[in-house]
Amino acid sequence: MAPKIGERKIPLLIQSFLIILLVKKGITIERYPEFHFFFLGALFSSLTALILLFLKTKASLHMIGISALTVFVFGLSIHFHTQNTFWIGFLIFMNGAVASSRLEMKAHTSRELTIGLFIGSIPQLLFLFVWL
Would you state the pLDDT for residue 1? Predict the structure, then answer.
């Protein structure tokens, strides 16, 4: 738990650096195009969350992660013409479970959870249109 805004800056900066390294050296567009764009979306989400910290706004990193994964699995289902309704439904349920647990623990407000949902989903949706 990092309740203070300042405690989140260094971990997000390190995460962004590691994702850049991963995208440049390991998960290239030629080898794994779907994962490449997933991690680019994750990079944009991390950088957005970092920028918001400098604007004194906190977002739920848990919601960023689970919402990004949900959109990515939905995109994989479309891309490969498979029906992953179980997994998509499960991940949507998990979005609610994560949000409920963060509220119950008083780790976030509903505003911070909503911001996290959008920061995780929007970059994945934008990159979904690139690799579909």
Answer: 66
Residues 127/41, Cβ–Cβ less than 8 Å: yes
Closest CA to 114 of 128, 100, 99, 101: 99
CB atoms within 10 A of CB 98: 19
CA atoms of 46 and 16, how far apart (whole Å): 6
Cα 79–81–83 angle (5° rounding)? 115
**Tokens 């647990």 belong to residue:** 101
pTM score over 0.85:
yes
- Asked if residues 15 and 46 have their Cβ atoms less than 8 Å apart, the reply is yes
Q: Which two tokens stand for residue 82?
A: 């498979």
